[in-house]
What does this fold into?
Amino acid sequence: MKYSKSTPVKDFTMNVLNGVSTGIVAMLLPSAIIGSFASLFVNVPFLKSLYEMTNYVMILMPVVAGYIVGTLFDFNHVQSASVALAAAIGAGNWQFKNGTFIAKGVGDVINLIIVITLAVLFVAAIGKKLGSFTVLLLPSLTVLIPGVIGYYILPYVHYITTWIGDLVNLVTKLQPIPMGILIAVLFAIIMVTPISTVGIATAIGINGIGSGAAGIGITSLGFALCFYGWSVNGIGTSLAHFLGSAKIQMANMMSKPKLLIPPCINAAIMGGIAAIFQIKGTPISGGFGLSGGVSFLAAYKEMTPGVISLLTLILVFFILPIILAYLSKLIFINLLHFMKPEDFAIEVD
It folds into this structure.
């Protein structure tokens, strides 16, 4: 979609959200698929290096997301690269601290979206006004204006994540089953917003049953969204909802919030079940779900090793979420016509 002053706000927003969510999933999948396998054999030098490389890839997410958004607006290579440069600065995952360059995680996605939006508007406003100086000046100007703005507003935008973290922290004070239900629903909702579930989980130090419920909530969400859009997304894209990240549905969920109701019902049921089965986790594992098998493996480590524990986790992380996803699709799509598969279509071209 070529940007113009008459571009509808909804179309503009969907382009930005689709680009960012695609970038997130594309950058997380190597770590989730290759990295999780390699992590099991870190004593093997090559596989250890492979594991580390897939983690390095994730820090490029803001750059990739910015470039993808640029292409969605039909920008040329220099224009898209300029948006990507601004995104790299605005995400906040590349920083200098005490004279040392630090690159970690994917950054603040809310601020990333703001900066990419500013960069797109800036690049579109400049257009072809720079003429033959475009290659020379546009990347630098995009860094100096939208990029620097993003850098300075980052601490203030980050307060949003902090506030949500405080809210989630209050829920952890409840009794196990109500806590499990609410935590699972909250993390399912957060997963399809620009806010990082991993960031929230680590910021508040959620652990034990709360962390287990968070991972289960994300897992049940991923399976539900996979089933809902299976007929329009194909096998690979559908599997990415739980093997990678359900954030791939961010644009669809934010444009039609009612679509969150069915998967949140599933998350609530599974959150309660997770509490009953005493599924636990760590602050690191709480925001992952089945991506990389992180929440599953963390839960197993918190249990007594053995066949019974493994079967319990397979039941809670796979069998029950899959059954609920199928029933939810049957009820809300086939019987009630509350939604349709096309609502969950993902454009990957």
Observations:
- Residues 9-157 form one domain.
- DSSP finds 14 helices and two strands in the chain.
- The longest strand covers residues 94-97.
